From TrEMBL:
PROSITE patterns: G_BMS1. Transmembrane segments: none annotated. InterPro entries: AARP2CN, Bms1/Tsr1, BMS1_TSR1_C, G_Bms1/Tsr1_dom. This is Pre-rRNA-processing protein TSR1 homolog. It is found in: Nucleus, Nucleolus. Belongs to the TRAFAC class translation factor GTPase superfamily. Bms1-like GTPase family. TSR1 subfamily. It holds the Pfam family RIBIOP_C. Residues 1-27, 265-367 are annotated as: Disordered. It comes from the Eukaryota. It comes from Caenorhabditis latens. One of its GO terms (molecular function) is GTP binding. Residues 9-25 have a biased composition (Basic residues).
Length: 725
């Protein structure tokens, strides 16, 4: 059985916009440069047999005893470019002689690099037509410098002008060592060339989808699920052979379809999440073993105390011993502090010195420009405040601090203090799956890739059919999805690995893209568009620090320079897998905000939100200090008394007792404080992402960055034309 040829993705990278860019090209339309390039390539050898399909232009080359399929996506359609690269063995760039790229080209290269690059071949049409040897060499060096600047490995720059040049290019495309993507080496995939429907059930509005194309990657299994981009995961009934529409040699023999693989009782289910039982959280009567263990506990209680009374007696005394030095230093000042300075506390003392009032008056001026997004202006202000005073929060005046921060706790050491990962979990955690040992499960799954599972039976195709043209029967596909699937020029199907249809907590290591200058907050209202491997979905994310340890600090804003970890509810994905993160503004435009890769699938990752309460040292007597403005009543001071205090200069201390009834408190530190010091108190609580996962099946629109660059480029061209006139 003959195997399919290599696929090469080809698209032109012009130097800058020109007049012909008035209006958008039709989806899937081949540009004139690509059409001319492939036309010259097809005429370099008279024996080449050229055929077409809705998604490819195919060459059968008897000279090299091989076939090549060319994908020519519209470079302004990000989804089409990414789909073409996922299905390609070679990525062929057509570089301009000037080696200059527009801002859109640069951002597209960033997206392509972040998504993963196969083997690269660089072609420069027109390079062979330069007669001056020195100028030709300069052009070559300029293009090679641009390629090296983008850190793209390439065998060199090839011309494509003469017949010999095109023959050499075909030979290079055929003989170049292929470097498959991780996605291609792990997942079976197919570039769909023909799509049909059978067994339409009007009552249930489902049908069986027949997808035809070449079987690529590891051996296909009818027991594994298949992913339809934008519509989810579906089961396969069977896989059968089909007549190859692009044969290397025409054959008069008619081939009857034969079943290559058929699903059996071991095929994967469509269960994505667990349906929680409402009775799981009910309190049960203790077992006899638990009662016996409780009776064995021996406690020292006063003589004559009953068992009921003993239950209310604490083992450890909660009374703290005061230092004698502190009492001597402060005993003359207690009564004075109770009455003085408390009544003098005015609202001006509690105002921030950052000038927010003036900024707010300016922002809400009646004459403000309507195009300004006030929500983004507010994000800029909050990001600036957070950078100046990280995680600081004003103690509320209208409610007690012990109520406002009742979900928070103090930690002696963020690095060494323990935090139970199973404590106070949200209800959504009852719906997800978790591996008992992620590394062992991943190792077991990877060992069975490519038909290495001895228990697979007839569900896996034989190796000799790998690369054959076949038909996949996909069951229970919604009829409403057919129209959009048929409109996609480059529809790529991927098979799932075991467990990849199940929902869990996905952690991704990301870095903010330099083109994104807008502050991105880690809140539940902001939904992001994630491209994770072969999946596209929308979800809210929680940002945390990318650091060693078992606890990780929440990042209120997406860091600009350093890497961070985004945590979302999403289907299980085994690392490594590439990640692209986009945001959508209120006008429906998308912008690339971050790129990275999957870290792991771990619901036990502890992300802690830190809140810092600050106070002012009112009176300092050696190591004894009276602090005010951190709390405003005696009960709050007693509540937070066990939490350690610190200062920005590195002093450590703790609360001794409350002074008066207005929130002043006596504290003691390890060293003497300065009058300029502030007293801080850290509180932590665990945060979780929000369950708002949804599939994303809309094409990416040009980003805001791209629209601005186009306007600037077009206006620049028009200005140059006006100057010439």
């Amino acid at each position: 059985m003959s195997t399919s040829g290599h696929r090469a993705g080809v698209f032109k990278k012009p130097a800058k916009p020109h007049k012909s860019w008035k209006g958008k090209r039709t989806k899937g339309e081949i540009t004139s440069d690509n059409r001319e390039f492939l036309k010259k390539l097809a005429t370099c050898d008279e024996t080449i047999i050229q055929t077409h399909s809705p998604s490819t232009i195919d060459f059968a080359i008897p000279r090299f005893k091989s076939r090549l399929s060319f994908l020519t996506p519209d470079k302004e359609n990000v989804d089409a470019v990414l789909d073409a690269i996922r299905a390609s063995d070679i990525l062929c760039f057509l570089w301009p002689l000037s080696a200059e790229l527009s801002e859109w080209d640069e951002q597209l290269l960033t997206v392509i690099k972040a998504a993963g690059l196969p083997t690269i071949v660089s072609v420069v049409p027109g390079l062979g037509g330069i007669s001056n040897v020195k100028k030709k060499e300069d052009v070559r060096k300029g293009i090679e410098f641009t390629i090296s600047k983008w850190s793209m490995t390439s065998a060199g720059v090839m011309p494509a002008d003469s017949v010999n040049d095109n023959l050499q290019l075909l030979r290079t495309l055929n003989e170049t060592k292929k470097k498959p993507l991780t996605l291609q080496s792990r997942h079976s995939y197919m570039l769909v060339e023909n799509l049909e429907t059978t067994d339409v059930m009007d009552s249930e509005r489902f049908c069986t989808l027949k997808a035809q194309g070449y079987l690529r990657g590891p051996e296909w299994s009818a027991n594994n699920l298949v992913h339809l981009p934008g519509f989810g995961d579906f089961q396969i009934s069977h896989i059968e052979s089909a007549v190859d529409p692009h044969p290397l040699k025409a054959s008069a023999k008619s081939q009857e379809p034969q079943i290559l693989a058929k699903a059996d009782e071991k095929r994967q289910g469509l269960e994505t999440e667990i349906v929680p039982d409402a009775m799981d959280g009910e309190q049960t009567w203790p077992t006899e073993e638990e009662l016996r263990d409780a009776e064995k506990e021996m406690r020292r209680v006063p003589k004559g105390t009953s068992s009921y009374q003993a239950a209310w007696i604490l083992e450890d005394s909660e009374d703290d011993e005061d230092d004698e030095d502190s009492d001597e230093d402060m005993e003359d000042e207690d009564e004075a502090e109770e009455d003085d300075e408390e009544d003098d506390m005015e609202p001006e003392d509690l105002k921030s010195e950052a000038g927010e009032t003036t900024a707010s008056e300016m922002m809400f001026d009646d004459g403000i420009d309507e195009d300004i997004n006030m929500a983004e202006v507010e994000k800029y202000r909050k990001e600036r405040e957070n950078a100046q005073w990280p995680d600081e929060v004003d103690t509320p005046l209208d409610q007690p601090a012990r109520i406002r921060f009742q979900k928070y706790r103090g930690l002696k050491s963020f690095r060494t203090s323990t935090w139970d990962p199973k404590e106070n979990l949200p209800v959504d955690y009852a719906r997800i799956f978790q591996f008992q040992n992620y590394k062992n499960t991943k190792k077991n799954v990877m060992s069975k890739i490519g038909g290495n599972d001895v228990d697979s039976g007839d569900a896996v195709i034989e190796k000799k059919f790998n690369g054959a043209y076949a038909t996949i029967y996909i069951e229970k596909v919604p009829v409403s999805a057919l129209k959009e699937l048929n409109e996609r020029k480059h529809l790529v199907l991927f098979q799932l690995l075991p467990h990849e249809q199940k929902m869990s907590v996905l952690n991704m290591t990301l870095k903010k893209h330099p083109s994104c200058s807008i502050p991105i907050t880690s809140d539940n209202e902001q939904k992001f568009i994630f491209y994770v491997g072969y999946r596209q979905f929308e979800a809210s994310a929680v940002f945390s620090s990318n650091s060693p340890g078992d606890k990780f600090k929440l990042e209120r804003f997406m860091p600009t320079e350093k890497t961070f970890v985004a945590t979302v509810y999403a289907p299980i994905t085994f690392n490594p897998a590439t990640v692209l993160c986009f945001r959508q503004d209120d006008k429906g435009r998308q912008e690339l905000v971050a790129t990275g890769s999957v870290l792991d699938t771990n619901p036990d990752r502890i992300v802690l939100k830190r809140t810092v309460l600050s106070g002012h040292p009112y009176k300092i007597n050696r190591r004894a200090v009276v602090v005010r403005y951190m709390f405003f009543n005696r009960e709050d001071i007693d509540w937070f008394k066990p939490v350690e205090l610190y200062t920005p200069s590195g002093r450590r201390g703790h609360i001794k007792e409350a002074v008066g009834t207005h929130g002043n408190m006596k504290c003691r530190f390890d060293q003497q404080l300065n009058a300029q010091d502030s007293v801080m108190l850290n509180l932590y609580k665990r945060v979780f992402p929000v369950w708002n996962y949804s599939l994303y099946n809309r094409n990416l629109n040009p980003s805001r960055f791209v629209e601005r660059s186009r306007v600037e480029s077009i206006s620049l061209v028009n200005d140059e034309e006006a100057m010439e006139e």
